[in-house]
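EI: anyone free to look at a 518-residue chain?
SC: sure, send it
EI:
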Amino acid sequence: MRRLLTAAEAKALDKYTIEQIGVPSVVLMERASLAVAEVCEELIGEAGGRASENNLRKRILCVCAMGNNGADGVAVSRILHLKGFLTEILLVGDERKATEEMKIQLSIARNLGIGICKADEEKEYIKEGAYGIIVDAMFGVGLTREVTGVYALLIRQINESGARVVAVDIPSGISADDGKIMGCAVRAEVTVTFGNEKLGMILYPGTEYGGRRVVAHIGLAEEPYFSGKTALYGNADDAPAVTYDREDVHRLPARPAYSNKGTFGRVLVIAGSENMGGAALFSGMAAYRMGAGLVEIATVAENRSFLMERLPECVLTIYSPEEEPGSWLPDAVKRAKAVVVGPGMGTGENTKQILTYLLKESDIPLIIDADGLNVLAGDKELADYLTEGVILTPHLGEMSRLTGKTVAQIRGDLIGTAKAFSKQTGAVCVMKDARTIVSSPDGRVYVNTSGNCGMATGGSGDLLAGMLGALRAEGMDTFESACLGVYLHGLYGDMARDRYGDRTMIATDFGELIGSTF
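SC: here you go
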């Protein structure tokens, strides 16, 4: 698990390390600068060795503003200069307003005779082809307004320079909180960030500007801060967002040797309608492949032969949309450990009756997807029956219908929208997008970093719903199962992309890969 910090969280962590732990700011700065310098050396090595007067492509330019991000850049220039590389510093901003750390670093650089130029007017400072590497050290995580003037000019020149760009902490012009472009932004090949990744380098569009991310551990005292033992960090509403990687697969429940199919839970999938049998198939198949002991699919008669042929392992319950759900649904719910409802069902009265029963008359773990969400959006009173045992899986269009916000408004505040919705409804929300957000009623947030554009294809969401149903049926916590299910869903999508390509892959491709990494 990796923490993803906002600007305020990153600053508070720095402050805690310096003021409470007693690590001097210049010590943290030196370690940060060494990490950036190492990445620069790697890139120079790829280009063929040290710079020389006769090989201008290997010259290194550090573009530095007057804050501590700029001080990092000056220190990088000094470190590489002392190793024999040709380095130059381009300063931007009023030096009289420089931080104390910046003043120290500039004094050292001047004593060493490093070339320093000041960008104090709008002209060409960075010519195309003049530098092999440019270190972007203008703005750190504290940027809150649009970039204009000479700063915007330098960003454009950096992007057009043809150099390999290394960003310090976060590319200049990217909001650390939400990934927004603040007017314009540096496009980096590598971003060296400190302690933890920042949300803005994970969320779109900011993630497209950062290139390869390198997390440098520079001595920030994270554990005491994040454990809640200080006044700087307390309740879950302030908790940093997190993301998973392959190490988190171990969060899956252990599979005891002495077991039977009942040990691993029975999932009831209520899905599909006439001409929409694939939704039932995908959800049922994914539930089985995710580890469910038994999957019962409740669907209409038109899907019987199709499902028996494609998924003979399933137990079928056939119902008619014209009959009252009370004739079959209560018994089916009693047999199950978790229910998936909504994929491909349509939004007719029968779907509403099924959803109403599940919310009002049952306390079984519930995953509401697709048409179940659309019915919920059309009957706000049903939302009063949502509980922390319910997982909702809206894409942004469905989230718009559920919240009354426009898609643009939601995109402008993905995390805030998801958190507010979970707090309001009491349910766990899986808001599906290029970066899916999982939020819980107590304020916890997960941001997914697996997956790819090839997963934007019919059936993908049905697979996720089935996977979540299996994890809940096996007894996993609601929020934990949502986070892990989303991560694994993206992981299998990445495997399918590697095998088939993101243009040609379909849901069947990564549905068949579910479980293959175990």
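EI: The domain at 2-236 is CATH 3.40.50.10260 (Rossmann fold).
SC: 👍
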